[in-house]
Amino acid sequence: MSAGTSSDAPVGPPDPADPVGRADQTDQTDQTDQTDQTDQTDQTDPAGPAGPPAPAGRPGSAAPAPTAVRAVRPRRRPPGTATLARLALLTVGIVVAVLPFAWMLRTAIGPAQSALALDSNPIPSRVQFHSFDQAWHAGDLGSALLTGVGVSLAILALQLATAVPAAYAFACLRFRGRTALFAVVLATLLVPAQVTAVPNYVTISALGFADTRVGLVLPFMTHAGMIFMLRQYMSTIPASVLDAARMDGLSTWRTLRSIIVPLAAPAIASVSVFSFLLSYNEYLWPLLVARSPGIATPPLALARLLSDSSAIIPDFAELTAAALIISLPSLAVFVVAQRRLAAGITGTGAGA
Amino acid sequence: MSGVGGGRVRWRVGALLAPAFVGLGLFVIGPALVSAFIAGTDKTLTGPHFGWVGTANARTAFSDDDLGGAVRNTLVYCLITVIPAVAGGLALALAAERVAHGRALVRFALFLPVSANIVAMAVVFAYMFDSSPDGFANTVVGLFGVAPVDWLGDTSTALPVVALVGGWRLTSFVFVVYLAGLTAIPRSVYEAADVDGIRGFARLRHITLPLLAPTTVFLGVFVTILTLQTFETVAVLTKGGPLNSSTTIIYYIYEVGFTGSFRIGYASMIALLLLVVIVALGAGGALLGRRFRRAREAVA
Q: Do residues A127 and A251 share a domain?
């Protein structure tokens, strides 16, 4: 959002009476370039004396002059100390965030590595792609990927089918017990999966779905978090829109389908991304239910590859190759939907 | 707002809510109640017969040294992941918010750990922290003259390494949420602050951080609850070992209920006690959050 501001600022009509715009721009760009910042500082200084007119518009505000001086002074320190600190912090953060991924890739394409002969050179001594082939077959990863993606998509479809109507009712309709029922929905968020795992296992077995893909999907058929996030977003839809729909004689179902769902599309998209990532990475439930290797989900297939191989000496090239392969679907979804994730959090109020 | 009351509306509301409540009832609420019942029995997963034992499981729990160890491990794990993750995520979000060039790339890199498959990353970390002197971590500490460490095989380092994996991922999650919180602060607030000459550190301290307070409360509670439920990293990296030095509460529940003698009655009791703690945390967080939200509305 501030990206828009920073690019808009220089283009916008120059307003000499408004030092705020420029000062704001300084904030946006000051870490880009040392010289740039000095320029900005020089510009801000003349704006300092020009500052008082602005507080004059707000008679009740704090004494302007001393505050302004105090605020300007830090900018006269050797330029960019704070900027350098910020850049250093970001660099460290990025290196730490990316390093395990880089190491995963580097190990997977390096020569086969056992625990007896590790190789910690940043550049592998020779590059090979044999490990991918080996991991693909040893872990039956093709079948695992299909199961993982299929199960995650089925869960997503069920969750949308159950959560969208419920969120609509909670956000847009008035009925008795609404607050209490919504509180019940929220309370279910606090129940850890391990509490429900045992009874769910019994239920799924009784229904005959133990060790089946249906058994992997069914317990996740609805998600309180999704109802909550969608409801938060739908609450922002103006009442006038709903009133207009009612005036036009739209049924509840038609209103949901042709008004609410299109308007809530951004929120629906972001909860879908969350849902997919959560389901695809789920570990505990598949561990309990998917006993036969044929329906292992990707994390399970990888964990089994790891525990099988640790009996002998693990081949880390093969294991990291498998880790890389099973990470691909969630990484792909993530790359495509990166902006949605942040937007989804903002829209729900969790971020504010 | 549409719908005022009456039978037809109630019927429609019922139709809209039914699918969600069937799902929640069958797979969350019902099981939670069943679990609370099982917690009072000596049921095992394999045996067909079981009886009511009342509070015996709870008394066992309070005198169970292994559970005590798991609680201690979980608290240590929380302490060394939650605080650095929230502080680090906040610092990174503040730093990244103002990046003008390469913003997309910076965010992409810092979002990566959140999207990672935790089992896959655990495998990678297991390799980086291999006990061999040529392992990545040992090579790094070797540069400082430290002798090779058996990271995952030593009772004093296993838990911190597991926590490092969890903290690595949590920091990225905290970063995402704080970044969204920062974006949600209206520019007009900053503009007004600027007019009053509040900039730099003063602005951070008196404007940004107070406005982020609800986010901080949400994150503190949510991240703590997530951390209390740590399972995957332990299951993949150490299986609770060596000598239970990295067994967390949830992993202990898994061990008690789903391995060995499958004592799911006792496992349910531990889970129930954990649920009480989590609900208390959640309720406390909700109250605190409401207070800050109100304060925030007063400011903005």
A: no
